[in-house]
Amino acid sequence: MFDALTDRLSSVFDRLSGRGVLSEKDVDEALREVRTALLEADVALPVVRDFIAKAKDRAAGEAVIRSIRPADQVAKITYDGLVEMLGGEGNAVGLNISLNPPTVIMMAGLQGSGKTTTAGKLALKLVRDRKKVLLASLDTRRPAAMEQLATLAKLAEADSLPIVAGQSAPDIARRAMQAAKLQGYDILILDTAGRTTLDEAMMAEAAEIARIATPSETLLVADSLTGQDAVRTATAFHERLPLTGLVLTRADGDGRGGAALSMRAVTGLPIKFLGVSEKIDGLDVFDAARVAGRILGQGDIVALVEKATQDLDHAKSEAMARKLAKGQFDLDMMADQFAQMKRMGGMDGLMGMLPGVQKVKKQIAEANISDKMLDRQAAIISSMTKLERKKPDVLQASRKRRIAAGAGVDVAEVNRLLKQHRQMADAFKAMSRDGGKGFARMAQMMGGGGAGGMDRLKALGGGKMAPPDPAQMEELAKQLGGGASGLPGLGGAKLPGLGGLPPGFNPFKKS
User: DSSP letter string over 104-152?
Assistant: First the structure.
């Protein structure tokens, strides 16, 4: 999401970074380019006008003239404006959970916007928060809508209201309310019917359901790929329903992001979640500061930690850590790393959370760093015998040819994998020889190491956490055998430690 906007803004800041002092003319020119970038990202014109007007006010006077790094100041002004546009600092609003259960969450939106899928994703998130969740489909028109929600409920380990043929949507809402109260559910999620376009019948039915259920949350689900149409849909629904928040689906497929940047400003409603994949766990809590950081190329380390806490096999990770501390790193462990990366969203998902990756997208593409690369490397390892995976030194030419044939790759690709493994194994041995100081530095960067450290880092929150220290990132790269030539295991791509914006820029630090 926001790829085009990130590229454009990065180029603006790069051009400013070499200048000692910025004149008022320089600032005006930079903000003009920012304005063009926002318009090209499909941000609503009134929102852009307001953004630029406030940015000019912030940029006026001594703040820019006396800045040691003027380009950083312009970047900070842009960051502050983006955070305000998206809802303000600490905008991870969350759900309004009623003190008297059940809390009713009503999902509204047009047909095809992803309401039913989002209801299942939200149920999983709440189940993981130890809530007892009941899902009820009120879509009596779309074929198999109720069956689809029942299937999603099973995936989310939640319950679904039994289907009774012939009931109207208001009747189903009444039955769902009664079942949720009698059976002690914490949360009731009502999935309402949609239409392909806005119409009076749909609005009247939704209003009737809202009257019956008196929901604590009425969430509008909108497809971010529809751009400003999504904003118009939100405005129309908000005029008829007491909406409390927005969910933007298919956010991972929206390269411009204009809907997300416009919705809060136009409707006044908070964006509560972003749908980021088709998977049942592909729903992220929206946070203005973290999204603004990603737009400006700073990645989202907190989101990366959250993915790790949810998706990694911590027992296996701790066992691997014990082996690494002894300098052990075989090909089975490398294959486990690939599998864990896939569970966390694959290369594309992880790269989007790392600082500075936007700056080296071309190099990453040329290095062929992708999920397909991980799949091929995993196939190479799976084509080896147990002995070969434990002791890769036994791999001579004939064995390599056999492995290459089994994996459907060239021998050269087998050699590249073995070279990457050797680099990583040597780095881990070096880190274990210095008394574990290298591992301690890695743990320090992750907030103290282990699951507790990850929890502490996660608890800091996106808007309150500074990005990793560039010096620590560089030192870690050297520890891992990469240094200036890049990190091992990534096809030789040169990944920066922090990158993306001028040195010293920290948007998460209060002015």
Answer: EEEEE--TTSSHHHHHHHHHHHHHHTT--EEEEE---SSTTHHHHHHHH
Nearest one of 90, 22, 32 to 60, comparing CA atoms? 22
Same domain, 336 and 281: no
Among 193, 225, 186, residue whose Cα is nearest residue 207: 193
Q: How many CB atoms lie within 10 A of CB 157?
A: 12
What is the residue whose two structure tokens read 């040195």? 503
Half-sphere exposure of residue 67, counting CA atoms within 13 Å on the CB side?
Answer: 27
User: CA-to-CA distance for 62 and 274, rounded, in angstroms?
Assistant: 38
Coil, strand or helix: which one is 223?
strand
**430 and 316 fall within a common domain:** yes
pLDDT score for 361: 55
Residue at 308 is within a domain = yes
Q: Which tens digit of pLDDT belongs to each residue from 43-84? A: 888 888 998 888 888 776 545 445 446 667 777 788 888 888
Same domain, 73 and 137: no
* Per-residue pLDDT at 316: 66
Q: How far apart are CA 455 and CA 81, in angstroms?
A: 30
Q: In the predicted model, what is the mean pLDDT of the chain?
A: 75
CATH of the domain at 214: 3.40.50.300
User: Looking at residue 427, what is its pLDDT?
Assistant: 77
- Residue-number span of the structural domain to which 333 is assigned: 303-485
The enclosing domain of 425 has a CATH number of: 1.10.260.30
Q: Classify 370 in phi/psi space as left (phi over 0), alpha (psi -120 to 50) or beta.
A: beta
184 and 329, same domain (yes or no) = no
SS3 191: strand
Structure tokens at 406: 């089994």
Per DSSP, the three-state class of 326 is coil
